[in-house]
Amino acid sequence: MQQTDPPGARAGVLHKLLITLVPLGLLLYGLLRGTEANLHLQIGIAAGFMVYIVTFIDLTLGLAILIACVGLSPELSIGGVQNLRLEDFVVPALLISWITRMMQNRIPLAPLLVTPALPFYAVAIVLSTMVGVAAGTTSLSTAILYMGKFVEFFLIYVLLVNNVARREEFRALAAFAILVAVASAMMVSSAFADERGPGRLNGPLGETANMYGGYLILNVGVALGLFLQARSGPARVGSAAAVVLLGIPLLYTYSRTSFVAIMVAALLFGIFRDRRLLLVALIVALLTPVIAPDSIWNRISSISGVATGSEPSSWTSRIWAWQQAGGRALQENPILGFGLASIKLGMVDNEYVRVLVDTGILGLGLFLWVLIGLLLKASVLAGRLPAQSFERGYASGYWISFVAMMIHAVGATSYTSIRTMECFIVITGLFGALYNHAEEWGLVETTTPGGGTVLIAESPVLNPVAVTPRPPYSA
User: Fold this and answer.
1) Which residues on neighbouring strands pair with residue 453, listed in sequence order?
2) Residues facing residue 84 across a β-bridge
3) Whole-angstrom Cα distance, residue 271 to residue 122?
């Protein structure tokens, strides 16, 4: 039986998130802006303690705080430790609250959608790093810091997949994530206009323009999917406004990697999934030269130089770095690479080359296995959810964002850089919750030729072995 939400359920949950978190976010923003570094630790601890208390009252609020931190937190440096953000203090509080509830209520773990590929990839990372440390090609202390961040990415994903169980919670958190992205873009654009003067639009403190462009295209992709499947006029206007409000700051990042990623992803989705997006892309292509300043249009125009032989100097430098680093790895240690963190991120702006250098052909193959598995699941789910529904819009948007992220990773270390990867983890966690509960919400039943019922989680495209229906994963 299809699960129906009470009237105004999504609006009620989203309203609760907004009236609770917006004042809190403004307070933290005011405290952090211009605050001396030695006070960041106290603010972070206070935020974590507050989240711990809030989470025991309402876990959805805790997850919303996490999503807000991912989009808005600047980079902090405390006690010599670099690349800290507010979510680093929030995640432990959420974990304690979730584990406590899970043990008390005997809630089973939800399927993670990335097994067995991700555990195998983790083993490959550890093995390559051990060999690299023994050979002196990487530093154990630096590798441990990288591993710690990867573990945090995974824990954020686990938290979302296991704690978003109701349809109205999923909808509210998905809409809230887009609102956070819009707020981030507006705050950064305001700071850019008021303080930074001419130049490229970077993200919050510690962010590069290319990485912030990656963050923006992930949210643009989701907003595009919601726009295509919007059922009502207000929903269509709201999602279109989100695309515009995120798209304009994206142009001012001057990130050609981000431009190409979202354009190609949208075109592929339009060709293979929904032709209407081709019309949207055509309108954007026609309007951009008219609306965009000459500096932005000249930047976009230079992309064609890659095909004509007059490529930008930055592209030539990247190709040279990829050839040097990747060629050395293939010659000296092709199977296992040199170990995690064997090469600095700024030296190779390509995630796939970085994985090859660090973990060899073995690690790269397993890494691609993880990505392809998720992409197949997104493709199947997006095609089987009801048309003109919020859920189909989100699955479609996730497909666009996923492909854009894969393309963006060709010109950046997108799956390692914190801003892009944490955003990717958030939208993937919400997608995982949708995938796991689509049956429970009555969204994906189809009839097989033999007359039986097949659920999306049991689709032969994803799992050829027949399985029994799973119980709900949380109370």
Assistant:
1) 447
2) 76
3) 35
